[in-house]
Amino acid sequence: WHVRLIMAAQVCACFATSGDMLAVASADGRVRVWDVRSGDIRHEFAPDEHAGGEITCLDWRERTAQLNGGDMPVSKRKRRRSHGKHDNVIAGGTASGAVVILNVDQGTTEQTLNGHRAVVNCLAFCSQRSLLYSGSDDRFIVEWNSDTWEEQSRWKGDKHQVTALCCTFDGSPLLLSAGRTIKLWNTEKQEVTKKFSGHANLVRQLLFVPSESVSHFVSRADNERIINAWSIGSSGALERNAVATFSATEELSHIHVDKHPIHPHAVCLVALSRENSIHIFSHPLNGYHGKPLSPKCTIQFASSREKSDSSVSPLPILSAQLCCHHDDSLLVAYGSIVRPAFERLSPVQEERHVCLVRNADCDNSVAVGKRSNLQRHKVKGKQHAGRVLGPGQAAMPACTHNSTSNADGSEETSIEERLSLMSVTKAKPPPRPSGPPSADSLSQMLVQALHSQDKQMLEGVLRNVKERIVENTVRRLPSMLVVPLLKEIVHRIQTKPTK
Predict the structure, then answer these.
(1) Dihedrals phi, psi of 421, to nearest 5 degrees
(2) Cβ atoms of residues 16 and 88 within 8 Å
(3) R_g of the chain, CA atoms, integer Å
(4) Contact yes or no for 193/232 (Cβ under 8 A)
């Protein structure tokens, strides 16, 4: 399985599978590769070097440790004959329809592939079979040989556009593609073996769930707050019901999935929202689950501009990746694309809401050798000025505190502030907004009312008659709750047709 990109404010960011490097493509077409451990930049590829223009998607192919399939070290002569086939390589799709191949080890543009006539939306490496797949707005899927970079085949992948691709991690000839409908392909025969339908918008990300056998995958769509988990082994040529639905409170921009670090039969899912929040889900995929699953924990990053200033502002999150196969950690890149900061956290937390405050004046490069403990108020390492806020403060736009000075002049947090940060009950709730409810709150109320069969709550939601609010509320409703909502509306029409 491969790490996909995250697009926010015309920025693409993509971690390597090992978590050692981060590739960031800005709106001007520059691709910067960062070393996660040192925090230094490795290479910067300018648009005139790769001749591709604006980068729309990224994917990694990391160096193969076993060139000839064994544990024997590879000689220098064989390494020269390989012509860089097993170097760290980044594939970047462009708005012009070209796919640029950037060699990270050599710092050069290895190849430019011209196989599409429209913007390239998605890329997927299949390292076990030495293949690269690309999908575009021209509706075609192109299969490339990742050793020679020659086009091997192409076929029509969708009626409108191909927006997401994903290869299996075991080297089997299975490929997932998506526009509005998800398709499972047999690439050897170029035939669709199964279809999945459950998203109202264009699907932007597909990921196979790591397991001993290829059995499940997850999907994310544009302007949606849900993630669907699907079973490949279900009967029928068209599957409309997801085995599980993970629901967040904000629109999602990126997801990543891995095995759970503690529970062997569960999966751990990380979702980034457009409001710079990290939602962590965990659930065993061992059958159908009707109700949407809420996140186990939500993490936010904030910055304090001055040491004497108590107000904080949210930090943008560039990308996040689970490294459960490496050290059971959550790797996060946040801050500015000019110099991002990196930090390893634990994906298993006891608190539901956590806000990490980082000093903007300190060095952006964070040591990632040890994971940060979110339960402590003093964060070790270079982020010595950080504060961990409780659930109440995580939702507040600004935090204030009073501090006292020691004899040596250093500031010491008062006992009252420590208790207020540790206690959830002492945190002041945010002021209730005045005016009519928004579509965001109504959609949550509607989901709760349909699940709990609360007639009074449902009546309060249906009492709203503004067309824009009604349209936005229904658009945010999970697909599995559309039929129950229609039944409630039909029942009210039949019982009270004049109301």
Answers:
(1) -75, -35
(2) yes
(3) 24
(4) no
